[in-house]
Design goal:
Blueprint (H helix, E strand, L loop, with lengths): L1 E14 L2 E11 L2 H15 L5 H13 L3 H5 L3 H12 L16 H8 L1
Helix pairs in contact: 1-2
């Protein structure tokens, strides 16, 4: 499942040499998007990167923009991306919270 969420930026950002005040974020539940973000994080930041860099890369992948465009966002605009993506609670789920990526949750769902 994926849908597109349009985010209006308070401060325009440069995307491939053009200033834009809106980003379209594809909200995806695909593993391949997470893997693409992890690969991009390794390429952009090296092996020693954290969750923040992976999240930046995930947003770049889902918005179809360069990593540098996401890095240049104002904090308030970055928070809008986080909110748009987490709107259905997907971003905040983790194995420790019993979200869908948790083996125990998957096992329980299959029972």
């Amino acid at each position: 499942m994926s849908d597109i969420r349009s985010i209006t930026l308070d401060t325009p950002v440069d995307v491939d040499g053009q200033k834009t005040s809106q980003l379209s974020l594809r909200v995806s539940r695909k593993v391949r998007d997470r893997l693409a973000a992890a690969r991009l994080a390794r390429e952009s930041y090296g092996r020693e990167h954290g969750n923040e860099e992976t999240e930046i890369c995930l947003f770049a992948v889902l918005a179809g923009v360069p990593v540098q465009s996401i890095e240049e966002l104002e904090i308030a605009d970055y928070a809008k991306l986080q909110e748009a993506y987490a709107g259905d609670g997907f971003l905040s789920r983790s194995p420790s919270s019993g979200g869908p990526s948790s083996p125990s949750a998957a096992t329980q769902a299959g029972d």
